[in-house]
């Protein structure tokens, strides 16, 4: 079963984040868990709702693009191992839900969550980093994790059918460099964040490097790998 929530409640201050984790990227939280043993299947994520807004729409589902802040603690002693506010100038994290961009336990814990909702979740080792732990993230083997999460926004994910069609201006079922470039400009204008002038070109190049598998200069619907909005 999952570990016991520590008696001492972890600090909740927005700025109380360990500087030693300043460079710990979101991707590290997605390191695959390789838990073993017959008891793993019986372990579940424990969810405590700390705040539920009156208006709850839309609820998050697999494939949605979420914007959230979250702090991670070790259940064994309440020590903090991760804080999203130390990165990206304190901006909340953007990630796609249910596709492995974060650990399995967080993908589960943030399903059916409302914009503005706050949760405290307890994640067993089998849905986190398992028996091997994650030394770079200062997570020991067989560690039960606690996350305090505040969800800010739920949007249609970048891999949804709707998003693909929105980017595909000419309707030819493939995305050109020009189409994705225009999409990035629109997204940058929408969120209003200050970025270095080179950010656009770097992100565009990275998108094609990771998605244009046949090197033809286009990202097909298959390469785009549209996520289905089914449950885990």
UniProtKB/TrEMBL annotation:
<keyword id="KW-0697">Rotamase</keyword>
<keyword id="KW-0413">Isomerase</keyword>
<feature type="domain" description="EF-hand">
    <location>
        <begin position="199"/>
        <end position="232"/>
    </location>
</feature>
<dbReference type="GO" id="GO:0005783">
    <property type="term" value="C:endoplasmic reticulum"/>
</dbReference>
<keyword id="KW-0256">Endoplasmic reticulum</keyword>
<dbReference type="GO" id="GO:0003755">
    <property type="term" value="F:peptidyl-prolyl cis-trans isomerase activity"/>
</dbReference>
<dbReference type="Pfam" id="PF00254">
    <property type="entry name" value="FKBP_C"/>
</dbReference>
<protein>
    <recommendedName>
        <fullName>peptidylprolyl isomerase</fullName>
        <ecNumber>5.2.1.8</ecNumber>
    </recommendedName>
</protein>
<dbReference type="InterPro" id="IPR002048">
    <property type="entry name" value="EF_hand_dom"/>
</dbReference>
<dbReference type="InterPro" id="IPR018247">
    <property type="entry name" value="EF_Hand_1_Ca_BS"/>
</dbReference>
<feature type="domain" description="EF-hand">
    <location>
        <begin position="155"/>
        <end position="190"/>
    </location>
</feature>
<dbReference type="InterPro" id="IPR001179">
    <property type="entry name" value="PPIase_FKBP_dom"/>
</dbReference>
<dbReference type="InterPro" id="IPR011992">
    <property type="entry name" value="EF-hand-dom_pair"/>
</dbReference>
<keyword id="KW-0732">Signal</keyword>
<dbReference type="Pfam" id="PF13499">
    <property type="entry name" value="EF-hand_7"/>
</dbReference>
<keyword id="KW-0479">Metal-binding</keyword>
<dbReference type="InterPro" id="IPR052273">
    <property type="entry name" value="PPIase_FKBP"/>
</dbReference>
<feature type="domain" description="PPIase FKBP-type">
    <location>
        <begin position="63"/>
        <end position="155"/>
    </location>
</feature>
<feature type="signal peptide">
    <location>
        <begin position="1"/>
        <end position="35"/>
    </location>
</feature>
<keyword id="KW-0677">Repeat</keyword>
<dbReference type="InterPro" id="IPR046357">
    <property type="entry name" value="PPIase_dom_sf"/>
</dbReference>
<keyword id="KW-0106">Calcium</keyword>
<dbReference type="GO" id="GO:0005509">
    <property type="term" value="F:calcium ion binding"/>
</dbReference>
<keyword id="KW-0325">Glycoprotein</keyword>
